[in-house]
Specification:
Blueprint: E1 16-18, E2 21-23, E3 30-32, H1 40-43, E4 60-62, E5 66-67, E6 74-75, E7 80-81, E8 85-86, E9 93-97, E10 101-105, E11 110-112
Antiparallel strand pairs: 1-2, 2-3, 4-7, 4-11, 5-6, 8-9, 9-10
Length: 113
């Protein structure tokens, strides 16, 4: 039975040692042996336009008019968005906006209410 840790990127159990590094054969991720791994949520902090830390379930307000790609409509300044969910990527907020539906926003264009 192997005592090597699972890959922090893909969770594969088939990791192996290469010198002082661990290597995942499935996703080719390499990381230092013996390094303490933090979970992705502990490392990642999402902040709004004012520097406040955002969490899942927060309510935010849009700070500038945002054009909706593929549509002629605009999300107006001051639009309130409830129950946000933080996701990975360039647009790091997933939410539903009344009158528009499901949408992804960048945290730099919102402020915490």
């Amino acid at each position: 039975m192997s005592t090597l840790p699972n890959c922090p990127e893909c969770g594969s159990e088939y990791t192996y040692e290469d010198g002082n590094m661990y290597v995942c054969p499935e996703c080719a991720h390499e990381w230092p042996a013996g390094a303490e791994l933090e979970s992705a949520e502990e490392k990642r902090v999402v902040r709004d336009a004012n520097g406040n830390i955002l969490n899942d379930g927060d309510a935010v307000s849009v700070i500038k008019d945002l054009k909706v790609k593929g549509s002629s409509s605009v999300i107006k300044i001051g639009t309130k968005v409830k129950n946000i969910r933080l996701i990975e990527g360039d647009h790091d907020i997933d939410c539903k906006i009344d009158g528009f539906g499901a949408m992804q926003l960048k945290s730099e264009f919102v402020k915490k209410i």
